[in-house]
Each structure stands twice: as structure tokens, then as C-alpha cells.
Amino acid sequence: MTARNRELLNLFVVGLLTACGFASVYLASQDIPEFSTTSLSYAGFFLALFLAAHLVVRYALPLADPYLLPIAGLLTATGLTMIYRIEPGQAFRQGVWVVGGVALFAAVILLLRDHRRLDPLKYTCGVAAIALLALPALPIIGHTVNGARLWIQVGPVNLQPGEFAKVLLVVFLAGYLRDNRELLSMGFGRVGIPSPKHFGPLLLIWGVAMLVLFQSNDLGGGLLLFSIFLAMLYIATGRWPYIAVGLVLFAAGSYVLYHLRDHIANRIAIWLDPWQDPYDAGFQLVQSIYAIAGGGLFGQGLGRGVLLSDSGEPYIPFLETDFIYSAITNELGLAGGAAVVLLYLVFAYRGFRIAMLADDGFSKLLAAGLTATLAIQAFIIVGGVTGLIPLTGITLPFVSYGGSSVIANFLLVGLLLIVSDHVNRSADR
Amino acid sequence: MNAQIRRLFFVFAALFVGVIGIGTYWLWRAPDLEARQGNPNLVVRQLTIKRGLVLASDGRTILAQNRKRKVQGRTWFLRRYPNRGLAAQAVGYSTIERSRTGLEESLNDYLTGSNANLSTLVDRVENKLRGLTQEGNDVVTTLDAGAQRVAMQALAGRCGSVVALDPESGRVLVLASTPTYDPNLIERSFRRATQVAAPCSPASPLLNRATQGPVFIPGSTFKIVTAAAALDSRRWSPSSTFEDPGYCIEYGKKVFNYADQAGPHVYGTVDFSEAVENSINSVFCDLGKAIGVRRLLDFTKRFGFYEDPPLETPGEERSPSGLYSKGKLFDPKDPNQVDPGRFAFGQERLLVTPLQMAMVAAAVANGGVLMEPHVVDRIVSPDGDVVTRTRPDEIRRVMRAETAAALTPMMVRVVEGGTGTAAQISGVDVAGKTGTAETGRANENDTGFIAFAPADEPAIAIAVFLQNQDGTGGSTAGPIAKTVLETLLRRTT
Questions:
Q1: Contacts of A21 in chain B (CB under 8 A)
Q2: Is the ipTM of this complex over 0.95?
Q3: I need a surface site. Which of A184, A241, A415, A416 has the fewest CB within 10 A?
């Protein structure tokens, strides 16, 4: 079976699951369960959209990995189903964002064709990433939501430029690290401690991450950017002291901010003991844990979970964005939560496989960086809402409600598929 | 670089396994987490159980039932109380926001089918496997709906309580408390439900005055306890004579008998029966001094004072009767801390629950044997099988049978020609004792009446207590006891 037929088959399975999910939610919401075809229209529309994406890939990237697009599709469908269950009106808006995401996905594949064309643009990408990160700090267009200054308003649309910055940062780092990896890898002593002067770029990125953290008050975003950098630096150099020093620097930087900003201090105190203030500061995490524990092994059933009060208010604030994983676990149980986590792990496996098969440094670093970005982001939020690590608000890729996040992640998958097609093409030769 | 990528993958794998691990940990802790305040999962789980009915003793009158509502893809069973305030304090309420009280709280496991009886366990597993709604057990109480209604109507507009028992079995036939409240309003408009106009302050409609507080001064109804102690000691008999000068001397001061416009009553030479019939304080004052605080206190404990009165309602809704000092139950180590004279005629610092005083009347009625009161007759599974049934249970013999036999005609004389004539029922001998306790405020007496009937073959024991009455126990509580007794006696004959 060819890769594309495999992808098509996977997408049909995803379409079937989507139809089941929407039908379950629809039936659960009816007083007298009555089947209606409108409940399937979302699934039909969803399948058509991904078939279109599939045709673009079939036309432009026939040898690309057949699992990444269906995994993205299944995660998107899971998210849409949960959003539809929590707030049907938002599901429609999210559907529009998904259309936008698929459109950008198609545009990148059809227009870019070859990811190596990004190589000469690496510094442009780096500057653009920093510019995007700085945008919300501007007056007028920039604004603050829930204490984090991450948003800009363009006309009627709210955007989170940081979501796009992370993709551009990966492109920049792939090029920069490919050029400088020899230099950065040099070290002295038995464990190969790098020369202090080579810590320069590390310190620079650390400074940027801290600035982002301090200026935007967004611990999750700062942690994500810095982790992407450390992961790629490690792949490029194989020097673990970079990671050690980097993590110490991040911890130290956060510690200083810990004292400057109550916001961050609270997060860590809550993580250590969520029940010290279960009705105020610890409320979100405590409710999230209740939702996860209440799901049991197989969940309360789609549309039947304990997520909203009888007046329709979610028990956990930001249920459809930061805490969507808790909602999924409540309705689909530990089994459903583990399945979502495994989807990210399979995605990481397929993405890293592309990187390992690639024969040039830029492609390797680009594929590995994009993959690591998605996996780290998923871990930061899933680990946060389950209480494994301190909770920092960030979207769960493809699943959470949010336009910028959905569109940026489709861009990420598009780039990854371009690399994949290229890698498999060279392997064929 | 491939080695690094492979290692990084394993790091991610470990992190994601960690996420699944902590999820498993929370699952393992779920039972403990579910019991925590503020966890909506437990509340919703309880609301999705088809809670059992609470019924009066006829098995038809519904005291608590369910109203279905579809919420968030589930059927919620919300509570309705079709008889509103009829037995509101005893049945209690079950709500989302304000938890539960009364039998709704203490029998919650039975009502939700969460009890550990084998038949219920089997039903529960079967329902779960078949994906059916978990169903609770129905509770059939011993309350007589008709008599309860008569008692509530008689109490209307006053702060008081009526408790009626079957002295032979301990079945609670009436457990009434006013002011009452509408349990249907608790969830949505708690203030409207609880802010009621009543001639007492605080009105506290949620308070079960029958078992809780205690809020009543027993006054002369307590003389039955003193008389029982006296007769049981064999030092006195119904024909023992006393000299009444109209007062007794306590700590060098005169304590006068009940007084009207003509001044304190003076009876001269009387026997024990006449002293009970006319409720002569000076006689009981002297008796108390002769018996002594220690023995009197021991006798109250045989009747059940100083313990929560036994009943199936929650422990916090039952309070012991006894001496109270500064709001706390007071069990004096040194008898000199208590005035034996006032204690003997029910003043001092005595506070009682109507249930306790009904138990006093019931013990006399039952030949001196105190039966354990119970308000739950049986618990029935959704299929109609009896899960448990309450059997009559003896607490103890309080007094010798001869003592009870001697007390009965003395109490009959109270109703025939003494202070309790308002409770006379034609064709039936009623044995009773009145009580009028001054609260220190003008025209605001705590009044009471305890009785049993028929005197020769007692079927009902009753206690009626009222707060802030302008009148005596005989004139205020007596008529209420009469109407409730008549209703109940019609039923038993």
C-alpha cells in the first residue's frame, strides 16, 4: 500500500471516530434521544476538509509520512467534539479556524515546495520571531488576557503572535545551529565542558525567553521557547552540560521573577499543595484534578461528564482552552486521556523518524525542532493540568480552542510533511 | 545527531508516561477526593441516583419524592416535598447547595441505595452492569399522617412541639415542631424558607424542637419523675400525707405555690395523690429535699436524661435533656451545686425535649419499662422487598411495675379533677400531668402537658410543649394533647 493510500485509510477511520463522537455528544444533549443527521454534518464537513488536505499532499508530497496528517486530524476532531460539548457556539468558530489552518497548510505546501528555501531566510525568521513576540507589548494593538500580555487585535480578530513565533524560531535555530554546531560542540575536559564563550548564544536566547516571561507574564510561553532551544541545542551538539546550565539558568531566572511577580510565585506554591487554598488560588488545579479523578478508567461518557453546572457554567474556568485535557479525561477516562497522550508520542516518533532519516543538518534540525515543539507544548499543559509540573497556561496543540494555536500548528505539520517528502525522495534515489 | 534525537525521544516517552502515571495516581485517590467539599462529581453522582421515597406509616402519604430534570446529558433527581412543612424537621431536606438534614441525611445511604445490605448490593451491581439508573430504597416511617396534620394545625401560630409514642413498641406516631418551613424552598430561596414570623425569638424553623435544643423548661410535668423516684423508693405511697403551708423553705427563703389574684394557694394537709392532682409545689419541694439531688439525678438518667434521645434522625439534631448551665449540659459532681427543691418541681436549670418527656409518660404507661423510640418502620427495596424492619427494643426498666401502677391513678386524677381537665376525652380515661414554667417575662410561660391514654390499657403516650404562652399547661397544652390523642385513639380502636 502506498503512503498516500495509507493516509487516506487513516483519515477515514478518523472521520468515523469523529462521527461517533459528535453523535454521542448530540444524543446526550437531547431530552428524548433522537438521532438527527445535523449531528453528522460536523463530521461530514470535517472529513471533507481533511480529504482536501489529503489531496494537496497527494499532489505535492506523494512520499510524505502517512501518519502525521491523520494524527493532527484526530486531535483536531477530539478538540472540536469537546468544544462542541462544552459550548456549541465556540465549536463553529473553532471550525472556521481549522479551515484557516488547513488553508495555510495547503498554501505552504503548494508555495514553498522545498523547505531548504527557508535556509537563507533563517535570520529573517529569527528577527521576525522576536518581532512577533514583541508585538503584544505595543500599545493600541497589544492587550492582556488573564494577566498574560500575549494578544494583539487586528480588526475583529484576536491573535496570539507567540504561537507563530515558535515555528519561525525553529527555522532560525535549525539554520543557525547547523552552521555553528562544530564550534559549539568543542569543549575541554573529560566530559567536554564547552568553552565559556560559546555560551553566548545560549545566554542570548535565555535573555529573550526571560524578557518574554517578564514582559508578557507568560511562564508557559517562556518555558516552551526555552525548552525548544535547549532540545535543539542538545540535538546539534550532544553536549548535556548545555542542558544542565540552561535549566539552571531558567530556574534561576524564574526564581528572580518568582519574587518580582506574585503570579509566578503562586503557581509554584499551588503546584506543591493544591489544597492549601482550594476555593481561590488553587481552585483551577483542584477542580482539574477532581475532573480527572472523576473520569475513572473509561470516563463518564461523551456529553455526560461533570463539567458544567446546571446553569451551564464550567466548573473549571478556561475549560475549553487550558483545561481541555481535564474535560477529555472526565468524559473518556484515564484510557481516553492516555490515548491523547499516546497520539502526541506517536507524532513525536514519526517526526523524529523523519529527522533521523534526513541526510542534511538543516533538515534534521528542522524536523526534530518542529516535532519537539509540539511534544514539549503538549507536555507543558498536560503535565500542568494533571499536577505533574507547575501549571502554566498554554494551549494543547490542535485540541484547545484558539485560532492562532490551530493555524500555527497546521503550519508546523505542513513544514514537517515537506521535510518528510524530501527525505523519502532522497532515500528512493 | 541521530543518537541525540533517539535519546530525546526517550525523554519525551518518559515524560508522557509520567502524565499517564499521575493520572493513574489520581484515579487511585478518587474515592478520597470525591468526599471532599467542592468536588462536583460526588454531588452529581448523588443527584443521578433515583432517591427512595419517604412515606408516612400508611405507606401512601408521600413526605419526600423526586422530580426529574435533564441536565448535561443526565437525568437529575431533585427532591420534592408534597406535604411541605408537615414533618419538615423530622424528614429534613436534600439539596444540591445546602446538603441534607433530618432522615434525608441520616438515611442517605439507604435512600441512595448505597447501603451495605446484601440485597441492595446485588441490585446495585445489576443496575450498573445493565447501565440502569441506580435506585434507592423507600423509607416507611411510623408517623401517622392524620395525627401529624392535626398536631401541626393545633400548633399553628405558636412555637412548640408535639411528640406521640406507642408506649409498648416505641413507635413515634407524631413528631411535630413549629414554626415549620417549606423544604421545597431551601434550595432556591433559603431566606424565604427560614425567615418566618413566629411568637418566639429566634424563630428557628429548621430546629426540630421535638428532639433538639433543648428549648423547653419541663415545669411541673417533671413532677412525674420526682413522684416515680419517691414511690419507687418505697418510703412514700399514694396515701402518704404532707402538710402544705403554701410555701416551702429553701436556703432560709420562702418559695410559694402557684399563685393567682387571691395569692398563693394553701392546701393544708394533703395526701400524695392530691399533691399531684393540684400540682402543689411545696410538697414536691420537700420531697426533693428528702430524696436528695443525687438520687433524683440518677432517676432522670434511668428515663434517658443526659443522653441524646434515641431516634434515627442525625445525632446533631438530637440533644440530651437535663440540667443546663451556661448553655452546656451540667452533670453536677457536687449535689450542693443544685437546689433539690426547685429541681423536684421541674425548675432549677432543667431543660427537656418533648421526645424525652413523651418517653417519661410512655415508661409509666408501659408498666415502668422504657421502649426505644423509633420513627422508621421499615426500609423497602425498589422491588418491594423489605431491606430492614425496626423491631421493638427495650431500653431498661425505669421503675418497678407497682410504682407505675400507683402513678397511673394519680395522673388520671389530674385530668379528672385537677389541673388537666382540658384534656378529658369522653369515654376514655386519660392520665396526664400539666406544667407551667415561668420564664421570668410577664405572660410568657413555657407550658407543657404529658399524658397517656387509655389509662387502663395505654395505647398512646404524648408530650406537648409550648413556648411563650399566656396561660397554664392545662389550658394551653392540654387541649392540643386532647385533639391529637382523640385522632390517634380513633385509629387504634
A1: none
A2: no
A3: A241
Whole-angstrom distance, CA of residue B345 vs CA of residue B341: 7
> Would you list the DSSP string of A14-34?
HHHHHHHHHHHHHHHH-SS--
Which of A231, A236, A306 has the CB atom closest to B41's CB atom?
Answer: A306
Mean pLDDT of chain B: 90
Residues of A in contact with B44 (CB under 8 A): 306
Give the three-class secondary structure for B394: strand
Nearest residue on chain A to B6, judged by CA atoms?
A352
**A312-322 as b/e, with b when 16 or more CB fall inside 10 Å?**
eebbbebbbbb
Shortest CA distance to A337 belongs to which of A295, A376, A304, A377?
A: A295
The boundaries of the domain holding residue A154 are 3-428
Enumerate residues 6+ apart whose C-beta is below 8 A from A122.
Answer: A171, A172, A174, A175, A176
B35 touches chain A (CB under 8 A): no
CB pairs under 8 A between A and B: 128
| Domains: count for chain A | 1
Rounded Cα–Cα distance for residues A296 and A342 (Å): 18
pLDDT tens digits, one per residue of A149-201: 777 777 667 788 888 999 999 999 999 888 888 777 776 555 556 666 666 66
pLDDT band at B299 (very low <50, low <70, confident <90, very high): very high
Question: In angstroms, how far is the first alpha carbon of chain B from the final one?
Answer: 99
CB contact under 8 A, A304 and B39: no
Contact B73 A387 (CB under 8 A): no
CA-CA distance, B137 to B382, in Å (whole number)? 6
Cα separation, B371 vs B318, in Å, equals 17
Task: Tell me phi and psi for residue B254, to 5 degrees.
Answer: -80, 130
Q: Across the interface, which of A337, A365, A375 has its CB nearest the CB of B23? A: A337
Domains of chain B: 40-141 (3.90.1310.10), 145-375+392-492 (3.40.710.10)
Contact A334 B34 (CB under 8 A): no
Does A296 contact B27 at a Cβ distance shorter than 8 Å? yes
Nearest-CA distance from A156 to chain B in Å? Answer: 32
* Strand B160-165, strand B460-469: pairing: antiparallel
Helices (H), ranges, A195-282? 200-216, 219-237, 240-260, 262-272
Task: Name which of B279, B272, B295, B432 is nearest B365 in CA terms.
Answer: B432
Closest Cα partner for B58 from B302, B378, B413, B340?
B378
CA nearest B28 in A: which residue?
A: A293
- State pLDDT tens for residues B328-337: 999 988 888 8
pTM equals: 0.72
Closest residue on chain B to A304 (Cα): B73
C-alpha angle A130-A132-A136 in degrees, rounded to nearest 5: 115
Strands B54-55 and B138-141: parallel
Question: Rounded distance, CA B166 to CA B171, Å?
Answer: 5
Indicate yes or no: CB of B16 within 8 angstroms of CB of A341: yes
Distance from CA of A376 to the nearest CA of B (A): 8
Give the number of other Cβ atoms within 10 Å of residue A367's Cβ: 31
For residue B3, the chain A residues in CB contact (below 8 A) are: 238
Run of H or E residues at A412: helix A403-428
Which residues does chain B have within 8 Å of residue A375's beta carbon, measured at their own beta carbons? Answer: 12
- Say what the pLDDT of residue B23 is: 94
Residues B488, B476: Cα–Cα separation, whole Å: 20
Decide which of A198 and B467 is more confident: B467
